[in-house]
Each structure stands twice: as C-alpha cells, then as structure tokens.
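can u pls check wat happens w/ zinc ion
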Amino acid sequence: MQTNTTVIVDSGRALLVDPAWMPDELAALARELRERGITVVEGFATHAHHDHVLWHPEFGDVPRWASARTAELARTERADLVAALGPAFSDDLVHLMGRVDAGIPAFDVELIVHDGHAPGHTALWLPEPRVLVAGDMLSDVELPLPFWPDDVPAYERALDALEPYADAARLVIPGHGNVGTDARARLDADRRYLTDVRRTGRSNDPRRANEGMDAEYAHLQELLGRQP
Ligand SMILES: [Zn+2]
C-alpha cells in the first residue's frame, strides 16, 4: 500500500491532510514536523476509511475537519473502522482515530465534496499553487474503487466534479500512488476503465497488474454485469 500524507504549510503552521498510516509512519511524521519547526493547527480527513482518519498525539489537540457525511460515517462506522486498524495500533492511536467534525479549514483551500469511492469524499483544491489533493481518486497505481457502496454512477459523477480541477492542476496528490503532473490523463484513464468494463465487460488498464487490483477488477465486472 503506497500511501501519501499531505502537509499544507503557511508560515510554519500546517493543515495536515490524511496522516497515514502505520504507527511508525505516524510517529516519523510527527518527528519530521517537529524537526522542521512546523506546527499542526488543523487536520482534514478526505473520507471515512480507516487509513484516512488517523491522528497522532504529537500532532496536537487541534480541530480536525471533514465533510458532514464523512464526520457522520466516522461516528456511525466506528466499530468497523477500529477493527480495520489491526493489532499494531496502540490504544491512544485507536482513541484518536476518526475524531473529525464537519467543518471547513481556515487555510486557502476549496473543498470538492462528492460520493465517489466513499460517501462525502472530499478533494482539496489549492488555487494558487494549483494542487489537487485527490484523496482516494486519480491514483496511478490503484484502479477506480467505487465499492463502498457499490455505486459506479456516483463515482462517474465524482469524476465529472473533479474534471475542471484536473484540467487546471499543476500537481495531483492521490491518497495512494505517486504524486503526478498528469491529473487530467488519470481522470481520462479512470473514465475509460469504467466505460470499457460497462460496455465490453473487460479492460486492459495496466493498473490491473498491481497488487490487489485483480480482485477489484473482478468485483467491478460482476457489479456492472448485474446492472442494465
Ligand atoms: Zn479509501
């Protein structure tokens, strides 16, 4: 699992997006922020999956924001999210997981809320540097994952919502995969994958070769095979 944390810094104060994800990585991130003299003043979670709502005590007791739907799901799905963490997570990390409220960061970011990948999923757009923090969308290593719930149309509407930002982006930061300058090409590849599987039942998307993706591909084939 290739995971990204985004740290948006303004004059030494940081908005921390989706800190992730194993305990040693969270500790290393806290150490690096300290060494660089960066103070976390706010957090943001792009969606209510266990690897996107984490926190570390050293990040501090600061406001942690998410969309209203994400904040609601972080509460109502808490038992499942905790179970997904596994045994490596200490009690304090488990306690801090998912403690997000509905709200908007004070930083100069635009929130793009949609229901692709997860209900209430939120991308962040940084207008001046033209950076798109995509959450679990627009990955170069993961296929589109519209599986919670199984709502492919919502995923396609999410791609529509992201399109103008992908066109304008100088940089795209996915939750999993590589930072890239190819946001629009990724969006086109995601649309092509979904369209190909719907129309023909197949796709030759090269991301199928990546770990775990064949099962996701099979699930989408089954899902779209059942739909008219
Ligand atoms: Zn996710």
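The pocket of zinc ion is lined by residues 47, 49, 52, 117-118, 136 (CB under 6 Å).
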